[in-house]
Specification:
294 residues; alpha/beta; six-stranded parallel beta sheet; 13 helices; globular
């Protein structure tokens, strides 16, 4: 189950889905306020986002799934594991720091969330400014596709501002590494080494203390490995999913002990006859040996 990040939509998984869907049922969702989902004036808390995704998964009858969250989607994936653990077999966090204490969006994206100036800037921002803001989501020099600019332009200001605020509040209450430790689900954390939003090494080190966690740092990649390095990201997710699946398999049933087959009366008589015959032969041989000795 793939949950996109802040300002994104399901099209941020376009390069990854073909690599994992041939062997795994794959579901990508637009969070509330994003892409093709409705864009109400409220309801952007991580808890509500997770609850809506849980409803979708229950309707689809997925059973326990690997929940993959990119950036803000990592918050929602964590909230989903907290609220609906039966739907979650494991969690994968992609470039989402434990809290905003580690960093956050700057430039135009930050200005757009400021009181008064933010909404005015939102209305007049041309595409080149939006594109400049999105560049933070990739390694320096990575080209920003037009579809990612369109994703931002299709959002409402309320969805844009409240999503970020709610995500910040969620991790301020309790950081993701603390929450995920308490949840106890299998965990994979992936970061692009050139992340321009969160310090990759510092962020990944904060998760490293979680028992059983798997971590992966991808060189030359920024905040969005599923876009910048889909092959490496897919391999990591598939290997993680296979390991989780094997851990959930019930142990093989012990083989029943083989009991000796009871012999029939006829077999017993036959065996007894053989024993008597053998005994008689032995007596005769002993007598012959005694005669020879004399």
């Amino acid at each position: 189950v793939l949950i996109h990040g802040y300002g994104g939509a399901i099209n941020w998984w376009d390069d990854l889905i073909p690599l994992i869907s041939p062997t795994n049922r794959t579901i990508a969702v637009d969070m509330l306020g994003y892409g093709g989902s409705s864009k109400p004036d409220s309801g952007y808390s991580m808890s509500n986002q997770a609850n809506l995704i849980a409803q979708v998964l229950e309707q689809l009858g997925t059973g326990p799934a690997i929940i993959v969250g990119h950036s803000l989607g990592g918050n929602v994936a964590t909230a989903l594991a907290e609220q609906s653990p039966a739907l979650v077999a494991g969690v994968t966090i992609i470039d989402d720091a434990p809290s905003r204490d580690y960093g956050g969006l700057g430039g135009t994206a930050k200005l757009a969330r400021m009181p008064l100036i933010g909404q005015a800037l939102w209305r007049i921002s041309p595409d080149f400014m939006v594109r400049k803001s999105i560049e933070q989501a990739f390694a320096p020099g990575f080209p920003v596709a037009d579809k990612y600019v369109d994703d931002i332009n299709e959002m409402t200001y309320t969805a844009y501002k409240d999503s970020y605020t709610e995500g910040t509040d969620f991790t301020a209450e309790s950081p993701l590494n603390t929450r995920l430790t308490a949840i106890g689900k299998p965990l994979l954390v992936i970061f692009g080494e050139e992340d321009q939003i969160f310090p990759a090494r510092e962020s990944i080190s904060a998760y490293a203390a979680i028992p059983g966690v798997q971590t992966m740092l991808i060189p030359g990649v920024g905040h969005s490995p599923q876009v910048e390095a889909p092959q490496k990201t897919a391999i990591a997710i598939l290997d993680f999913a296979d390991g989780v699946a094997k851990s959930l398999e019930p142990p093989p049933a012990p083989k029943p002990e083989r009991k000796p087959t009871p012999k029939s009366k006829k077999q017993n008589k036959k065996q007894q006859g053989k024993n008597k015959k053998q005994s008689g032969q032995n007596d005769q041989q002993n007598k012959q040996k005694a005669g020879s000795a004399n």
